[in-house]
């Protein structure tokens, strides 16, 4: 369960990629890594929780997957995403409960296998739509320079969004390494490339 959840976290941020420390299941002997001042996504077994509580943690979100609750929060979880997008994402993800119960009742999708089940498709599609809503207009603001290099017109890109809450989110999101890596990859692509 732990490993699957960590892999799912990395998968749902598509088309972005996780560019930092990623350890789906951390051996207890290496627990000091969680004190690292860099971003990380790390899975810990329940047996490591007593060790975790003894460490000086800074900005760390800890989720107990067994009991479906937060053990440690940053207290900004409800204010990061624009409320309208958060509600829409939650509404779509509520469908997963129906699909999950259908799968538990033995209705597997034999044609596609477990990795492309209806549940996976609902979750993946929900997050792709979410990211398209937030940054899907980026290509309109990639302009070619003198030597055919493309550059994102950052301020115009942000201001093109009519929602004030989404513009505030974009201000923060555009400063992340995840967004910078995504845009840098697009800027370096040849303008005439297919695909």
UniProtKB/TrEMBL annotation:
<protein>
    <recommendedName>
        <fullName>UDENN domain-containing protein</fullName>
    </recommendedName>
</protein>
<dbReference type="Pfam" id="PF02141">
    <property type="entry name" value="DENN"/>
</dbReference>
<dbReference type="InterPro" id="IPR037516">
    <property type="entry name" value="Tripartite_DENN"/>
</dbReference>
<dbReference type="InterPro" id="IPR001194">
    <property type="entry name" value="cDENN_dom"/>
</dbReference>
<dbReference type="InterPro" id="IPR051942">
    <property type="entry name" value="DENN_domain_containing_2"/>
</dbReference>
<dbReference type="GO" id="GO:0015629">
    <property type="term" value="C:actin cytoskeleton"/>
</dbReference>
<dbReference type="Pfam" id="PF03455">
    <property type="entry name" value="dDENN"/>
</dbReference>
<dbReference type="GO" id="GO:0042147">
    <property type="term" value="P:retrograde transport, endosome to Golgi"/>
</dbReference>
<keyword id="KW-0344">Guanine-nucleotide releasing factor</keyword>
<dbReference type="GO" id="GO:0005085">
    <property type="term" value="F:guanyl-nucleotide exchange factor activity"/>
</dbReference>
<dbReference type="InterPro" id="IPR043153">
    <property type="entry name" value="DENN_C"/>
</dbReference>
<dbReference type="InterPro" id="IPR005112">
    <property type="entry name" value="dDENN_dom"/>
</dbReference>
<dbReference type="GO" id="GO:0005829">
    <property type="term" value="C:cytosol"/>
</dbReference>
<feature type="domain" description="UDENN">
    <location>
        <begin position="1"/>
        <end position="193"/>
    </location>
</feature>
């Amino acid at each position: 369960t732990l490993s699957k959840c960590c892999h799912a976290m990395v998968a749902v941020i598509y088309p972005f990629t996780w560019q930092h420390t990623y350890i789906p299941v951390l051996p207890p002997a290496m627990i000091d890594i969680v004190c690292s001042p860099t971003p990380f996504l790390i899975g810990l077994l329940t047996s490591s929780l007593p060790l975790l509580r003894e460490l000086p943690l800074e900005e760390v979100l800890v989720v107990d997957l067994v009991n479906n609750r937060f053990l440690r929060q940053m207290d900004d979880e409800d204010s990061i995403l624009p409320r309208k997008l958060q509600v829409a994402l939650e509404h779509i993800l509520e469908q997963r409960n129906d699909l999950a119960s259908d799968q538990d009742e033995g209705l597997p999708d034999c044609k596609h296998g477990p990795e492309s089940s209806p549940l996976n498709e609902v979750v993946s599609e929900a997050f792709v739509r979410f990211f398209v809503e937030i940054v899907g207009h980026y290509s309109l603001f990639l302009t070619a320079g003198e030597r055919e290099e493309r550059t994102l017109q950052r301020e115009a890109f942000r201001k093109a969004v009519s929602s004030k809450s989404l513009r505030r989110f974009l201000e923060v999101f555009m400063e992340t390494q995840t967004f910078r890596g995504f845009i840098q990859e697009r800027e370096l692509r040849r303008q005439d490339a297919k695909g």
